[in-house]
Amino acid sequence: MMQTINQLYRGFYFRIMNCYWCNTELIVGGDIDIDESMPTYPEYSVETNLSCPKCFAEVEVLKKRNAYD
Ligand SMILES: [Zn+2]
């Protein structure tokens, strides 16, 4: 039962990524909408931060502004 709930939850909400260094499943810290007040990344619309619970690597994902909008 726990497994079913877990799979549903993951399937609908998270896009699973594994750590580049140790292949552990990364924890999604959150999505940040990038707008004009954040001129650092004008080409991108969403910034997602992920972290590894095992080796503590940090991963930053930037979504191109025109992709999937
Ligand atoms: Zn790791």
Question: What does this entry look like structurally?
Answer:
The protein is an alpha+beta fold and about 70 residues long. It has a domain at about 20-65. About 15% of the residues lie in helices and about 30% in strands. It has one helix and three strands, in the order αβββ. A three-stranded antiparallel β-sheet has the order 1-2-3, with no helix packed on it. Strand 2 and strand 3 (about 60-65) form a beta hairpin. The chain is elongated, with a radius of gyration of 14 Å. The protein starts with a helix and ends in a 5-residue tail after the last strand.
Question: What's the topology here?
Answer:
Elements: H1 2-12, E1 27-33, E2 44-51, E3 58-64
Antiparallel strand pairs: 1-2, 2-3
The chain binds zinc ion.
